[in-house]
């Protein structure tokens, strides 16, 4: 009963807010401090999410989730994310082919624009390695523009395709030096606030070829670039870590320590590699990622936070045999010692075609705005799902 009164009062309030801001820039409305709790009472129209976390398991298609569940728990449907209420299937192709790489796959999610393989958040007018296309505005840039705190975490090089598509624009994913330097020249806001990834050696070499380096960038921009999570002082609220390897679980918890203090909410993207060219490694990564996601889920308030899980593209792995109680990856050790560079890998119960594949990947969602994930859709729809969850308009 009480809530009905609140609802009516609130609707009047919302109408007034909308009327007052209808001719003002979208920003005025978007950055207003309306708490989600006030908006959520509007019947049938849940209020906006305050925080969004996008978990990307690189190359984790439906079959990888299935196999990771069996490997880690002995049964299908045992991953935490497989209990989330909202499921869709996301189509990942670039504009001109059927099979996506990480660059196109993540760019499409982050910008709502499908492009070409190899291209980082530029339109399909880009020619890989030769000509820039129009930069396409990323969700992270939208979030920065509106004053949210932002974070990007990767188990891979922080300038590799998947993390790069959140903050950079480049005609070739291979240009990791150029991509990395874009962290220090953001187009919106003050750039990514928390950056935790690997790739120290590769990025360092490419920076050298551009006649710069970690030290030089750090000094020019007054932003230290640490070699490990442990080296970050607690007083640094905008840390960049480029390590040789990244502990994604710790990185995510460290990032949340900072992001959860944001007065306007946050956007966090976490990538964990789940390519199953080495099935033991890839499936274990997926299972570990799922455990991390469960920890994050326990730490956030799903009334004001949207959690999304997806992949940038799928991969050729298939469980085609085996029995309950048997080892899923029987035959793995023998393959690992003798034939680990074969393209087609025939284990006892698992067949691996060591390549990306074209079929749709799962999208799972829980929390504020998650109901927008449903049915089959192109991966560009995820851009709209996230913007809609925030209640923001497309530029
Ligand atoms: Zn990928």
From TrEMBL:
State the active site: 102
Q: Does the keyword Membrane apply?
A: no
Q: Cofactor note, please? A: Binds 1 Mg(2+) ion.
Which of this chain's residues are annotated to bind Mg(2+)? 58, 160, 162, 271
For this UniProt entry, the molecular function terms from Gene Ontology, in alphabetical order, are: alkaline phosphatase activity; metal ion binding
InterPro entries, alphabetically? Alkaline_phosphatase (IPR001952), Alkaline_phosphatase_core_sf (IPR017850)
Question: Which SMART domains does the record cross-reference, listed alphabetically?
Answer: alkPPc (SM00098)
Q: Where does Zn(2+) bind?
A: 58, 275, 312-313
Q: Which UniProt keywords apply?
A: Magnesium, Metal-binding, Phosphoprotein, Signal, Zinc
Q: Which cofactor does it need?
A: Mg(2+); Zn(2+)
Q: Which residues form the signal peptide?
A: 1-28
- Family under the similarity heading: Belongs to the alkaline phosphatase family.
Query: In its UniProt entry, what is this protein called?
Result: Alkaline phosphatase
